[in-house]
Amino acid sequence: MSKAIIQIKGLNKWFGRLHVLREVNLEVAAGEKLVIVGPSGSGKSTLIRCINRLEEFQQGEVVVDGIPLSSAKNLEAVRREVGMVFQQFNLFPHMTVLHNVTLAPCKVRGWSLEKAERKAQELLERVGIADQARKYPAQLSGGQQQRVAIARALAMEPKIMLFDEPTSALDPEMVGEVLDVMRGLAESGMTMLVVTHEMGFARDVADRVIVMDQGQILEQASPEVIFQNPAHERTRVFLQRVLHH
């Protein structure tokens, strides 16, 4: 296994008195595809949001590509390496698709507009919506908007991509087009952490599936093991519920 690009040790997080992450330890190798599953409220989204400190945590340490998150001055360096795609698309409604994708590379990486637009066109092509570049988000379907959000995250040339339930706000017929883009990304060798309820995607794409429950990692193994022979009764009950929906 290649060297860990993400190291999480003894991570604890509280929201007020609610203990949402309890002593989480996790290492992710460069190029690994990790899918995080578990019941609602189990801490999945909070965990991946701690990786780029969108959520503050009270105890433990997170190191991304050798950079510890403990210091605020390292935050910008880490966020440059970590792309994030949310449940809601968070596109700027007053900007065209192209402008949404070029904004961060120009502002944060200091690229020329010409370079950023070239990269943006290439990425929009890759996610299958190059013909939508001049439109505004409101003119696109939910699936198209989420593909723009993925292109925007990729425009920063991150080493790691985090996906926080990227298909859960979509109409069922649009889920497939977003998952196809994510499958392509996985095949390209990108390090990916994906919180999702799409078990077919987890089965096809994950190198490792992490099952969370009540703020802890309940178990982790290959998709074959998790889906066919989980170690925990709680995992079995959870999977039965989601797979028979």
From TrEMBL:
Keyword Ion transport part of the UniProt annotation: no
Lineage: Bacteria, Thermotogati, Deinococcota, Deinococci, Thermales
Name listed for the protein in its UniProt record: Glutamine transport ATP-binding protein GlnQ
PROSITE patterns, per the entry: ABC_TRANSPORTER_1 (PS00211), ABC_TRANSPORTER_2 (PS50893)
InterPro entries noted in UniProt: AAA+_ATPase, ABC_ATPase_HisP-typ, ABC_transporter-like_ATP-bd, ABC_transporter-like_CS, MetN_ABC_transporter-like, P-loop_NTPase
Residue ranges annotated for the ABC transporter domain, each copy included: 6-239
Gene label: glnQ_2
PANTHER family (UniProt xref): AMINO ACID IMPORT ATP-BINDING PROTEIN (PTHR43166), PHOSPHONATES IMPORT ATP-BINDING PROTEIN PHNC (PTHR43166:SF4)
Entry's Gene Ontology molecular function annotations: ABC-type amino acid transporter activity; ATP binding; ATP hydrolysis activity
Keyword Iron-sulfur: no
Family that this chain belongs to: Belongs to the ABC transporter superfamily.
Domain of life: Bacteria
Keywords: ATP-binding, Nucleotide-binding, Transport
Pfam families: ABC_tran (PF00005)
